[in-house]
Amino acid sequence: MKIEKYTAGFGLSLIVTSLLNAVILLLKETNEGIMNGMKAALGHHWTTHGVLVIVLFVVLGFVFSGTKMGEKWDSRKLLTCIIWAVIIGGVVIAGFFLPHLKGA
Amino acid sequence: MSIQVQMMLHVGFGVLGILLAVALFVDVLNVSEKNMERIKKLSVAVAVFIFLSYLIGGYWYVVHYGTDRAIIKAGQWAWAHNYFMEVKEHVFFLMLILSIYLPIAVYRNVPLTEKGNRSLVLGIAALIVLLGLFMEGAGAIIGKGVTMGLMGR
User: Fold this and answer.
1) Model confidence over B85-138: pLDDT tens digits?
2) Contact at 8 Å (CB) between A73 and A10?
3) Which of A79, A84, B86, B108 has the smallest C-beta neighbourhood within 10 Å, fewest atoms?
4) pTM score, whole prediction
5) E strand segments, B4-150
């Protein structure tokens, strides 16, 4: 069944942003320049990270809603991709910090 | 506003968001014209409460958490910060955008009586609840980390 354009657009944005959230984490934690830039931007790297995630989600949502992807996707396919994106994004974050768990 | 009140509001709004996501899940399982309005209100409430939890918790984290972090890292539960806080503060963004997306899926992807549309909303609500439970558990471990640090253990 054809999916409504904003549901599809923001759903795809959710998928992309979930993965980009993990990519931003890896970049800032492994590159001091990026970390310092994010600290300088809004006073704290986490604040900048959060604003980036929200802005990306909203902007990409409207961009994807303007395409015709809703005609190619259905709700089940969208949900499957969202679940996998959240799992992959979450596992990358949890896995990256795993060495810090020593001593537990 | 005291830092204790800020922390209680952060946790309180988060718990309310999770509970309302559970209520929405049950309502969507039994969706009909009678409860459609309530489902819409619940979806907005989940987004609002999780966003409020993000704003208040974020403010507390940026302004006040430094002291607690030093205490935790000096104790034997340093991993409570090094692992659980680091993971929590970044995985939270997933829960945040899922919560913002929830009302979009409820309001726009109609009718919810259609199986695929219903599954999408159920899946989003379930992810919010599961991530929310992780947030609560991680928060408890971080709090215990402060206690362990203060006890000199």
Assistant:
1) 999 999 999 999 999 999 999 999 878 888 889 999 999 999 999 999 999 999
2) no
3) A84
4) 0.95
5) none
| Residue among A3, A86, A98 minimizing CB distance to B94 | A86
Tell me which residue of B59, B61, B86 sits closest to B141, measured CA to CA: B86
Chain B residues within 8 A (CB-CB) of chain A? Answer: 54, 58, 61-62, 76-79, 82-83, 86-87, 89-91, 93-94, 96-98, 100-101, 104-105, 108-110, 114, 116-117, 119-120, 123-124, 127, 131
SS3 content of chain A, % helix, strand, coil (to 5): 85, 0, 15
Q: How many whole angstroms separate alpha carbon B37 and alpha carbon A15?
A: 28
The domain segmentation of chain B, as residue ranges, is: 3-150
Residue type, B99: S
Provide the 10 A C-beta neighbour count for residue B19: 14
Where along chain A do its domains lie?
Answer: 5-97
ipTM summary value: 0.95
Distance from CA of B114 to the nearest CA of A (A): 9
Strand segments, DSSP code E, in chain A are: none
* CB nearest to B62's CB, from A22, A46, A97: A46
Instruction: Mark yes or no for CB contact B124/A94 under 8 Å.
Output: no
DSSP assignment letter at A100: G
Nearest CA in chain A to B75: A103
Residue in this structure with the two tokens 């000199």, named with its chain if needed: B152
